[in-house]
Amino acid sequence: MTPAARIGAAIDVIDRIQDGELADRSLAHWGRKNRYAGSKDRAAIADIVYAVLRKKQSLAVLGAGKTGRALLIGYLRDIGQDPDAVFGADRYAPAALTEAERAAPEPGPENADFPEWLWPDLVRSQGDQALPIARAMRERAPIYVRANLMKASREEAIAALAAEGVIGTAHALSPSAVHISEGARKIRNAQPYLNGMIELQDAASQAVADLVPLTLGERFLDFCAGGGGKVLAVAGRIAGEFYAHDADLRRMNDLPARAARAGTQVNLVPPEDLDALPACHTVLVDAPCSGSGSWRRDPHGKWLLTRDRLDQLVEMQQNILSRASGLVRPGGHLVYATCSLLDVENDQQSAAFLARHPDFSQVGAHHFTPLSGGDGFFCAVFAKD
Ligand SMILES: C[S@@+](CC[C@H](N)C(=O)[O-])C[C@H]1O[C@@H](n2cnc3c(N)ncnc32)[C@H](O)[C@@H]1O
C-alpha cells in the first residue's frame, strides 16, 4: 500500500471507532475486508490509528473536526507533514483537501496539551516559539549522559558505553553531552557509569553548568544542590573547592557517594554552617521552580501547577537569591538558574534581583528550550562589584 492509502485506511478505521466500535475490532474488521493488505501494512495502519487515539483531542483541533478524515488531517499536521501532499496524492489516497480543510487552525493551547491558564504566560515568555515548545513538551524526553571530563574525553566515554551495548553520539549543547539512542536501560549497570566516567544528566543542565564562571582552585557553592547534578558537572570541568547546600539536607544524601564515584570531593554545608563558610568566588542558585522546562520528564507536574504555587515559587526564588548573594565575595559571581520557560521566574526575576542589589550587574543570560534537544533552562550570570 502507498503511504497515502494507509492514511485512507486509518480514516475508515477511525470512523468506525468514532461510531462506537472498539479499536481492535475496527482494525480487525478492516483487515477482513481488505485481505490484499500485508502484515506490514496492517501494523502501520494500527500504529497510525493508535497514535491518533493518543492525541485525539488535540488532533481534532489541528484537523478542525472529529471525523476520521479531520483527525488524520490533524495527525499529519502534528507530525509535520503537509496533508495536501497526502490527500489526493495518488489513486489510492483519500480525496484531495477542500479549501475549508486546507485552512490551518489558529495555534492555541488546546492543540498543544498545555494548561490553558498558563498559556498567556508561555506566549509572553516565548513569543512565536510557544506553540512548538508546548508541543515538543508532549513527547518523551531524550536521554543524555555527561562525560566526566576529569576521567575521560567524551569520545572515550562514547566508546566505553558502546562496548557495553549503549549507543551514544556527541550532542551540541555541551562539550560533555552524549545523546543515548540505544541501550539506555543498561546505563546504570555499565562500567563507565559505575566507575564515574559518565553520569546521567540532561544536556541543557550540562550546558548551564558550563556557563558557571570558575577558575582553577576557586571556591564554589551550589546553594540549592539537591542530588548534586550541577555541582558534579562543574567539578567535572575544573578542579576547585566545592561546597553543596540544600534547605532539605536529605536531598543531598547520595551526593558524597556520587562525588566519590566521579573522583571528586564535595563538602556538604548544613544551613546552620552557611555563615561560617568563607565568601565564595561563585555561588550557583539552581532554584526551586515550576519545572516547566522539564515537563517531558514530569508530565503530571504540568497539570499540578497552579497560579498560587507559581506565585509562591517566585517569592521563594527572590528570598533564596537575596540570601545566596550575601555569600559571594567581591569580584565573584552569582549564577541564577531555573528549569523554567516562564519569564516571571527568569528574566523578570533577574531584573527584580538587580533592582534590589545594585552591587551586582548582569554579565550574561541564556535561554534553553526543548527545541534544542535538552530541557528548558534559564541561566543568568551576575558579577559582584
Ligand atoms: C531545582 S532543585 C536543584 C537541582 C540540583 N541543583 C541538580 O542539578 O540536580 C532545587 C533544590 O532547591 C532546594 N531548596 C528549596 N528551597 C531552598 C532554600 N530556601 N534554600 C536552599 N535550597 C532550597 C530544594 O530542596 C531542591 O533540592
From TrEMBL:
<keyword id="KW-0694">RNA-binding</keyword>
<keyword id="KW-0808">Transferase</keyword>
<dbReference type="Pfam" id="PF01189">
    <property type="entry name" value="Methyltr_RsmB-F"/>
</dbReference>
<dbReference type="GO" id="GO:0008168">
    <property type="term" value="F:methyltransferase activity"/>
</dbReference>
<dbReference type="InterPro" id="IPR029063">
    <property type="entry name" value="SAM-dependent_MTases_sf"/>
</dbReference>
<feature type="binding site">
    <location>
        <position position="286"/>
    </location>
    <ligand>
        <name>S-adenosyl-L-methionine</name>
    </ligand>
</feature>
<dbReference type="InterPro" id="IPR023267">
    <property type="entry name" value="RCMT"/>
</dbReference>
<dbReference type="GO" id="GO:0032259">
    <property type="term" value="P:methylation"/>
</dbReference>
<keyword id="KW-0949">S-adenosyl-L-methionine</keyword>
<feature type="binding site">
    <location>
        <position position="246"/>
    </location>
    <ligand>
        <name>S-adenosyl-L-methionine</name>
    </ligand>
</feature>
<keyword id="KW-0489">Methyltransferase</keyword>
<dbReference type="InterPro" id="IPR049560">
    <property type="entry name" value="MeTrfase_RsmB-F_NOP2_cat"/>
</dbReference>
<protein>
    <submittedName>
        <fullName>RsmB/NOP family class I SAM-dependent RNA methyltransferase</fullName>
        <ecNumber>2.1.1.-</ecNumber>
    </submittedName>
</protein>
<dbReference type="Pfam" id="PF22458">
    <property type="entry name" value="RsmF-B_ferredox"/>
</dbReference>
<feature type="domain" description="SAM-dependent MTase RsmB/NOP-type">
    <location>
        <begin position="133"/>
        <end position="385"/>
    </location>
</feature>
<feature type="active site" description="Nucleophile">
    <location>
        <position position="339"/>
    </location>
</feature>
<dbReference type="InterPro" id="IPR054728">
    <property type="entry name" value="RsmB-like_ferredoxin"/>
</dbReference>
<comment type="similarity">
    <text>Belongs to the class I-like SAM-binding methyltransferase superfamily. RsmB/NOP family.</text>
</comment>
<dbReference type="InterPro" id="IPR001678">
    <property type="entry name" value="MeTrfase_RsmB-F_NOP2_dom"/>
</dbReference>
